[in-house]
Amino acid sequence: MRTWDVVVVGAGFPALDGLRDAAWRGARALAPFVIEAVRSWRPELVREWSRAHEETIGSASRLCRALASALRRPAVSGAALRVLGRLPGIATPLVRRAGRVPSRRSEP
């Protein structure tokens, strides 16, 4: 079975929906660069793609990796929860960022 088959079949399961959404965002961000590269390659496209990737995918990816790493370490996640429980103002932006649903405006 191919990876894409698993993502499509898994629609409706939160973890697989997240993978599908991430793949969709990445594809949507990359498509204009691929089209331009096919029409007329310029070395600057590499730098432009790197910047666009960072803006659209990079920060969310880092946050997910950091949260996943903390959740695999009970001492770290426990300490973080105790701190956030005492200082909920710190938790609000993190929860808001982690729970952000990607915009669907650009989908066909």
Plain-language structure description:
By secondary structure, this protein is mainly α. The chain has one domain. Helix content is 79%, strand content 0%. The protein has helices spanning 3-9, 14-39, 44-71, 74-86, 88-98. The longest helix has 28 residues, at 44-71. The protein is elongated, with a radius of gyration of 18 Å.
- Topology pattern, helix = H, strand = E: HHHHH
Radius of gyration: 18 Å
> Approximately what portion of the residues adopt beta-strand conformation?
under 5%
Number of strands: 0
How many structural domains does the protein architecture include? 1
Termini separation comes to: 27 Å
Count, helices: 5
- Which regions have little confidence, pLDDT < 50, spanning 5+ residues? 1-10, 101-108
Biggest sheet character: none
Q: What's the assembly state of these chains?
A: single chain
Helix content: over 70%
Gross geometry? elongated
Mean pLDDT: 75
Helix and strand content put the structural class at: mainly alpha
Record keyword descriptors for this entry.
108 residues; mainly alpha; 5 helices; elongated; disordered N terminus
